[in-house]
Design brief:
The chain has ten helices and ten strands. With 284 residues, it is α/β, with parallel strands linked by helices.
């Protein structure tokens, strides 16, 4: 059932990277104060460089959903991403979840982030991914705000049920959430079997057999749909600091199998066709 494909599908799948520091993840938000961020060991530039080298070695282009906080502090990194042919898109300013904001605060967050990204990158930003996939049933206004602000697409929905995020009732494939706007929502890919859905990117890919993600990609490609995959630069950094005050479950999810991630990514990139998300939309 989970055998790897013998050749790449002709369908172009979306490869994406969520650019954030190791200390900005949702799992640590209750134990690391944002006011302390500037004093912590910044590893995002080196970790993203490792990801860029991996993509260069495999001839892969991707979309980098980037925090404005990171872009403001590492403009040279943003220029390198764009210079190597990748897409820069928004991940919000400082990883605040959308369902914790009201529409006005969300609009301000989008504007501040876009300004920092475009100043550093020198290109227009038209894609968005909510931190922790936090556009869900609690934020019926979010897609309208994105459309009004001129975004072309969002990849902010995880159509699963999970203790950290998820919108199980959401559509599994790309859809237009608004009748009066061209905005496209591209949910991240989940595997579906026996009536159940299983997430396949990020920590799920790192912790579970890669064959599950291969199955999900083949499954959606078999239905004529592109897969949308994501991971984080901190996932290729086994030497990152340990946050001992975090809950045990969070530490297990965050730190397990970090040393295996680069090898698993090499295999995933070789087995399927990957590209930037804006290229996936153009190819549809």
């Amino acid at each position: 059932m989970f055998q790897a494909p013998v050749q790449k599908s002709r369908i172009l799948n979306g490869m994406s990277v969520d650019i954030e520091e190791w200390f900005q993840v949702g799992a640590f938000e209750r134990v690391i104060d944002k006011r302390d961020w500037n004093g912590l060991d910044s590893r995002v530039a080196d970790n993203t460089a490792t990801v860029l080298d991996l993509f260069a070695e495999t001839g892969t282009h991707a979309t980098f959903f980037t925090l404005g906080w990171v872009a403001e502090r590492h403009p040279a990194l943003i220029r390198r991403i764009v210079g190597e042919g990748h897409e820069i898109a928004s991940h919000g300013w400082d990883h605040q979840r959308v369902f914790t904001m009201d529409p006005a605060a969300f609009r301000a967050d989008l504007a501040r982030t876009r300004a920092a990204l475009e100043d550093a990158a020198g290109v227009a930003v038209t894609g968005y991914r909510a931190p922790s996939f936090s556009i869900d049933a609690r934020t019926p206004w979010a897609h309208a705000v994105l459309a009004e602000e001129g975004y072309r697409y969002s990849s902010s929905v995880a159509p699963v049920r999970h203790d950290h995020y998820g919108w199980r009732e959401a559509r599994r494939y790309a859809f237009r959430p608004l009748a009066d706007a061209p905005l496209i929502e591209l949910p991240v890919t989940v595997a579906e079997f026996a009536g159940r859905r299983l997430a396949t990117g990020g920590g799920f890919f790192r912790l579970l057999p890669a064959a599950i993600t291969d199955f999900a990609v083949r499954q959606v490609n078999g239905q004529g749909q592109p897969a949308i995959f994501y991971f984080h630069p901190w996932e290729v950094d086994p030497g990152q600091p340990r946050v001992m005050g975090a809950p045990l479950r969070s530490r297990l999810r965050h730190y397990s199998r970090l040393g295996a991630m680069r090898g698993k990514m090499n295999g995933l990139l070789a087995r399927h066709a990957w590209g930037r998300i804006d290229a996936v939309i153009a190819a549809a």
